Amino acid sequence: MKMAVLLSGSGRTLDNFHERIAAGTMRGSIEVVIANVAGSLGLEKAEKYGYPAFHARDNEETNRIIADYDVDLVLLAGYLKLYQPPPHLSRSVLNIHPSLIPSFCGAGFYGMRVHRAVKERGVKVTGCTVHFANEAYDEGPIIVQRCVEVGEDDSPEDIAARVFAAECEAFPEAVNLVDERGVAYFWK
User: Between 20 and 30 A from 87 (CA), which of 16, 64, 125, 183?
Assistant: First the structure.
């Protein structure tokens, strides 16, 4: 699969993709990296890795950039905006969410907000979900979920670290499943 990676921040997930593609454990190639935050560390990393890297302020600009590349999948890697893809990619956008959807998801639930809510609610298990994105936050078909235990003494930061470790396994696994089964399989 040929992939575009959209990010907003440090590019930790991009690091994971780059390492796993190089190791042969994640299928596909990264064709372009786009950030909605100018000067983000993720863009610097993309350039260091040799990927075409761009800043785009909005969906229209993002889609103009993607149109210049042969892309099968768009991976939202810590992209903190609701992305509206061009029609030919409308069912080909993957997102990772730091909880087990349908818990702790939707508008306003991202990053540490999720982990604080998990801690406040007192749940014993959380995790991450890789899903296809659609026009609503966190509602597209689920591809992979990974669970992590939450200990009584865990801080939101402890939970975040454990969930991110699970994300590093789940997102590449989801990309491999989509490559193996095809996009249409998940949109039944």
Answer: 16
- Render pLDDT for 172-183 as a digit per residue (tens, 0 to 9): 999 999 999 999
Helix or strand (DSSP H, E) at 166: helix 156-181
Pick the catalytic residue: 18, 88, 97, 115? Answer: 97
Q: Is the pLDDT of residue 154 over 90?
A: yes
Give the pTM: 0.94
* Domain with residues 1-90, CATH architecture: 3-Layer(aba) Sandwich (3.40)
Domain(s) labelled CATH 3.40.50.170 in the chain stretch across 1-90, 96-188
Q: How far is it, in rounded angstroms, from Cα 174 to Cα 180?
A: 10
Q: How confident is the model at residue 134 (pLDDT cuts 50, 70, 90)?
A: confident
For the question of residue 97 being annotated catalytic, the response is yes
Q: How far apart are CA 5 and CA 94, in angstroms?
A: 10
Whether 107 has a pLDDT exceeding 90, the answer reads no
To the nearest 10 degrees (0 to 180), the angle between helices 41-49 and 12-23 is 20
